[in-house]
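Contributing new records

If you add data, match the layout below exactly. Sequence lines come first and carry their own label; structure lines follow with theirs. Keep one chain per record. Anything else will be rejected by the validation script.
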Amino acid sequence: MVIKMKANMTNKQRMIRGQILNEIYVRGPISRVDIAKNTGITPATTTAVTADLIQNNLIKSTDIEVDNYAINTKKTSGRKKILLTICNKYNYYVGIELARDFVTLCLTDNLGNIVDQNIIDITATQFLKKITPNFILEELNHFLKQHAAYDIQAVGIALPGHFDETSQQIASNSDWSGFDLEDLLSRISFPVFLENNVHCMSLYEHLLTSENHGENFIFFHAVKGIFSSSMYRGNLYGVSNFSVGEVGHTIIHPDGERCECGRRGCLQNYLGGMNIINKAKVIYRSAQSTYLTSLVADSNDITLDTVIEAYRLGDSGIVQIIKDAMRAVAITLNNLTMLVDTNKIYLHGPLFNNDITNVILKEYLSYQNLYGGLGEIDFQMKSYQPINGAKGACALAIHQHLIWSEV
């Protein structure tokens, strides 16, 4: 299905359409009255634009909610609010996440409902040789061919860093400095949109779940690297400043371990996946008694899953590593809540999948609020799945191509 917009639509008209469509995505089901109130767009314009969207089958109306007057006065004859919501299966989007350990592809409809997915595991020895533009393009073309029956409109790519528009390359991640992103982009026939992978996942939570209705939140992601994305007043915060969100290099212990960045005591040292694995390798090789030796045959086989299992078994060395990591997380999150106006933080990463780890984290987060009377922070653990970044990339494509029509 081709997106039906008037050919002579002005930038102002396009912006108004985007504001209205965004309101329905984020806060829907929602009435025309509330759309006009939230956006400042006149009721007449709101009515005209939504009528056009209904005609094009992108949104639909429902009258399931009785209006406040009828509820408050306990009358049964009150008028029902006509609420607007997004139609599913209007069109489709492909999302890709590029990661060191895997490449994922995902096909969703315009509401983020997954049609199909493909997770390609990449070993450490394969990374430099296998992850090339040719490889990504072959996988994408194969995925597109498999789903040629769907009306795919655009492709989103979740990057393991930031997209430098000037150089057309992945910035802020030395592992990907040799990846020719410009070459890949030049060979994809669909409109393509790119963003940091954590920003993509944050956008998915904002746009395509029912948990938020335009609320501010922080999405804290910790796997091999650590990044914090903030949704503030309906927009991703600081996307043009690549240093914003790089909380992995905030200093937790000024006299702590030296970080790869040259400073001491960075959060990355305590929570970064590779740092935790390297510490576990030391325990494997030097400890007189450790459960690690019963879990893997060689220290090089240790993964984060191995570390979590050793923690569950009560390995004293691993327990201390995890406690140090959770303490560092707690310090960071408490600092973030004083810098970002939010009452919700999502925690995303394999270490946050473990119930015991979550209990320890909550213990460290139980500090008294700085100002009595302020609402408590709602900490939610988001289940870590390799497909999450690709789902976020689909959200990015929906946001940019369908809602704001950047084609």
